[in-house]
Amino acid sequence: xxxxxxxxxxxxxxxxxxxxxxxxxxxxxxxxxxxxxxxxxxxxxxxxxxxxxxxxxxxxxxxxxxxxxxxxxxxxxxxxxxxxxxxxxxxxxxxxx
Length: 97
What we know:
Blueprint: H1 12-18, H2 31-47, H3 51-73, H4 87-96
Helix pairs in contact: 1-3, 2-3
């Protein structure tokens, strides 16, 4: 296994930054999309013949999976949708999707 992957556990704040969010942002509605990104990165790792690219993709996949694991485990830290006034937007986006 890659030694870069054996780092300390990511903090919640660092995990949110990996996902492109500030701590306190509502990220849970977007977690399925990040799961799809992880799947695509896994496909790239398997399909890429260039070892340098394969290593880069694998490291990004580890980083993404670590961030997702931390954010999902600490979901309680996310403010409720109502607190951000997003309830109506979420319902509308689900209805229009």
